[in-house]
């Protein structure tokens, strides 16, 4: 984290004064995007005029299928190139930077666990996500004591993160043998190997057993409470309503609404376009976030 950002600690209440309008200015924006356009042939997948993501809060990016959410994520994280547009993180331009440079700047995204990664163990997955061996920069990584020290440190860090997500007992299991919920936890755990300032989660609740959704939500909130900025794409509206501090709605490539979940999810245009009949149900039973209940749910999930 840069010096200028350690000085300011944002909390969700800082958003109370922000206007619920597309492109609204935030008190402490960590990511700012302007005029980001991505076309595929004649089709415009993303056309975001202006977006500010507030530091230290959980922002959900929602919208119907094909709205451009994943494409926008890919652009911001250097995995795709826009036709036009600029964006910056902590005041520094990230425009045109590739995935590795974006990660180095402190922005990391989760990826779905692919088949190939499923054939590696949980610990190997974690070590693959570890930042480059510092010895490589100096051309010293071939020296056994340099790489052994790095490997030992990375393993220790990986095991610490795995234990936070209660996956340490699975360290030597093949990642492919994990349940849907455990895979999502591993995706999050992998992302934390780089000590990010901001984490971007692509559908963290997809394919997760409802019992474990509560646990995942708790983990995401814990990251925010530790000061991390979270931006996540999600279709599960209960999850969005329950943990988001701010919601941004995309449709046909544009940002069509943004605001606190209570406001955005009542917006008739958003409800009609997207949320359907169950928009007013909040899954948010905080008693389920009780650590003992969570431990039981996680144990059940593990034994499945
Ligand atoms: N590589 C590509 N080539 C051509 N068209 C693409 C490509 N990637 C995305 N698109 C199109 O761009 C539009 C936006 O897709 P995108 O996946 O970003 O939407 P999304 O909001 O993430 O949807 P979903 O919620 O279904 O994941 C869609 O019409 C999609 O078909």
UniProtKB/TrEMBL annotation:
<dbReference type="InterPro" id="IPR027417">
    <property type="entry name" value="P-loop_NTPase"/>
</dbReference>
<dbReference type="InterPro" id="IPR017871">
    <property type="entry name" value="ABC_transporter-like_CS"/>
</dbReference>
<keyword id="KW-0813">Transport</keyword>
<dbReference type="GO" id="GO:0005524">
    <property type="term" value="F:ATP binding"/>
</dbReference>
<dbReference type="Pfam" id="PF12399">
    <property type="entry name" value="BCA_ABC_TP_C"/>
</dbReference>
<keyword id="KW-0067">ATP-binding</keyword>
<keyword id="KW-0547">Nucleotide-binding</keyword>
<dbReference type="InterPro" id="IPR051120">
    <property type="entry name" value="ABC_AA/LPS_Transport"/>
</dbReference>
<feature type="region of interest" description="Disordered">
    <location>
        <begin position="1"/>
        <end position="21"/>
    </location>
</feature>
<dbReference type="InterPro" id="IPR003439">
    <property type="entry name" value="ABC_transporter-like_ATP-bd"/>
</dbReference>
<dbReference type="InterPro" id="IPR032823">
    <property type="entry name" value="BCA_ABC_TP_C"/>
</dbReference>
<feature type="domain" description="ABC transporter">
    <location>
        <begin position="31"/>
        <end position="277"/>
    </location>
</feature>
<feature type="compositionally biased region" description="Polar residues">
    <location>
        <begin position="1"/>
        <end position="14"/>
    </location>
</feature>
<protein>
    <submittedName>
        <fullName>ABC transporter ATP-binding protein</fullName>
    </submittedName>
</protein>
<dbReference type="Pfam" id="PF00005">
    <property type="entry name" value="ABC_tran"/>
</dbReference>
